[in-house]
Design a protein that fits this description.
By secondary structure, the protein is mainly alpha-helical. The chain has a domain at 50-137. Helices cover 71% and strands 0% of the residues. It has 5 helices and no strands. The protein has helices at 11-35, 45-68, 73-94, 101-134, 142-149. α2 runs antiparallel to α3 and α3 runs antiparallel to α4.
Length: 160
């Protein structure tokens, strides 16, 4: 069987990439903030709203499948679901008409945001549980965590 190809990137290049992209995003956001019109009519408004709900449904079903099959992908699906619920709450609230803002705020505060945090909490518990199974007690120190998750240098990466 062929050995899988692994992408190994050192901490320095990864940090440089992340800071560069964040800086570009800051510039882009400032530009958009100055250029976007205050009012805009969207032709596919219904598709956008139904689309985010469909994405939430798909992620929840994938999360259920991963939980049923006891797959670590459960963690990723839970985090994505939580993020989608937060995005849904943000857009519900920020795009609501004046008369609908209380309803949007109530749904966001009463359902979407708390449920997102529950999903993040569940994902965190799953990570800790997986960590307890995957790494023997002896190796659970900060050095081992740093080298496994984010190596200082490509030569420090754990070889398999």
């Amino acid at each position: 069987m062929a050995k899988p190809i692994r992408l190994r990137i050192g901490r320095g290049p990864l940090l440089a990439l992340l800071v560069t992209v964040a800086t570009a995003e800051i510039v882009w956001t400032i530009f958009l903030g100055m250029r976007l019109p205050r009012r805009y009519v969207a032709d596919h408004w219904d598709l956008a709203w139904v689309g985010i709900d469909v994405a939430e449904i798909v992620m929840m079903l994938l999360m259920a499948w991963a939980a049923w099959r006891r797959r670590a992908l459960f963690i990723m699906f839970a985090a994505i679901s939580a993020t989608l619920f937060l995005v849904d709450a943000w857009f519900d609230f920020t795009t609501a008409r004046r008369g609908d803002i209380w309803q949007s705020g109530l749904v966001a505060v009463g359902w979407e945001v708390p449920f997102a945090f529950v999903l993040y909490w569940i994902a965190g518990r799953a990570i800790r549980r997986l960590w307890g199974v995957a790494i023997p007690e002896v190796e659970r120190d900060r050095t081992a965590v740093r080298k496994i998750v984010l190596p200082q240098h490509p030569r420090d990466a754990v070889q398999e």
